Structure formats: C-alpha cells, structure tokens
C-alpha cells in the first residue's frame, strides 16, 4: 500500500484534506488507498464552484471500472474551485492522488470535525485490507 502523507488530514470516507491549518481554504482529494481500491478511474464528477456544502454532504462521484463511489464534503463551506484537469483526465486520481489528482477546494466555515491524522488513517486502512 502507498505511504500516507503526514502533512494531510483524512476522513473515514478515504478523502484527504490539505491546508486545514490556515483555516481558510482547503484542498480535497481521495487517498491513494481509495484509488487502489477503486481500480482504474474513468469518470469524476465534482461540485460546481459557488456551491455551499455541509460536512458529510455527497457532492460528487468517482466512477471506476469496478464501481461508483460518492465524494463527500469533509468540511462545511463554499466550493471555490474545482479541478478541471481531473474531470478531463480522471486517471490523475490513480497516478497522482495527492498532487494533480485533487478534486476541489472549499472555503471553510466553522471548525472542521472528525478529521483523522495520518497515523489514525493508517490504522483505519490497515483493518480494511
């Protein structure tokens, strides 16, 4: 399994969140573990910029050759940017999940809850293999 970047936060739904420490805008993607479980990603639907979301809302989906999985908002706020490159080339989710394969950015409202550290996420995924 891929290594888990220490500088990110994670969700139980296998998403990563970057930039949580600045408290303003965060970047969201799916983890390498999720990408490996999905297999070859062939379609990505992301929320539109300007959409207001609550933490836990289903905001899009990732479709692979194996299945379709919902994408959830890990934090409450407003979608301020989406990654058009990953919509045009969904394989970026597989080849660079923590880089060019990011999905969307959210201007955070309130304090994020229920995010996991890299160590906690590692424990979660070790029990799911």
What does this entry look like structurally?
It is a single chain. This protein has helices at 32-38, 84-88, 92-95, 118-126, and strands at 9-10, 15-18, 25-30, 41-45, 52-53, 58-64, 68-72, 77-82, 104-108. By secondary structure, it is an alpha+beta fold. The protein has one domain (9-111): OB fold (Dihydrolipoamide Acetyltransferase, E2P) (Beta Barrel), CATH 2.40.50. Strands 1-2-3-9-8-5 form a 6-stranded antiparallel beta sheet. The protein is globular and about 35 Å long.
Keywords:
129 residues; alpha+beta; OB fold (Dihydrolipoamide Acetyltransferase, E2P); six-stranded antiparallel sheet; three-stranded antiparallel sheet; 4 helices; 33% strand; lipoyl; Glycine cleavage system H protein; GCV_H
Brief write-up:
With 129 residues, the chain is of the alpha+beta class.
Q: Could you give the topology of this structure?
A:
Elements: E1 9-10, E2 15-18, E3 25-30, H1 32-38, E4 41-45, E5 52-53, E6 58-64, E7 68-72, E8 77-82, H2 84-88, H3 92-95, E9 104-108, H4 118-126
Antiparallel strand pairs: 1-2, 2-3, 3-9, 4-6, 5-8, 6-7, 8-9
Largest sheet at a glance? Answer: 6 strands, antiparallel
Instruction: Quickly count the helices.
Output: 4
Give the full name of the CATH homologous superfamily. Answer: RNA polymerase II/Efflux pump adaptor protein, barrel-sandwich hybrid domain
Total DSSP E strands:
9
Query: Which value, in Å, is the CA radius of gyration?
Result: 13 Å
| CATH class call | Mainly Beta
Strand portion: 25-35%
Shape: globular
Give the SSE string.
Answer: EEEHEEEEEHHEH
Uncertain regions spanning at least 5 consecutive residues: none
| Overall mean pLDDT | 93
Query: CATH topology, anyone?
Result: OB fold (Dihydrolipoamide Acetyltransferase, E2P)
Domain unit count: 1
Give the fraction of residues assigned to helices: 10-25%
Helix/strand-derived class?
Answer: alpha+beta
For the largest sheet, list the strands in their spatial order.
Answer: 1-2-3-9-8-5
CATH architecture: Beta Barrel
GO biological process, one term: glycine decarboxylation via glycine cleavage system
Domain Lipoyl-binding: 25-107
Function: The glycine cleavage system catalyzes the degradation of glycine. The H protein shuttles the methylamine group of glycine from the P protein to the T protein.
Modified residues (N6-lipoyllysine): 66
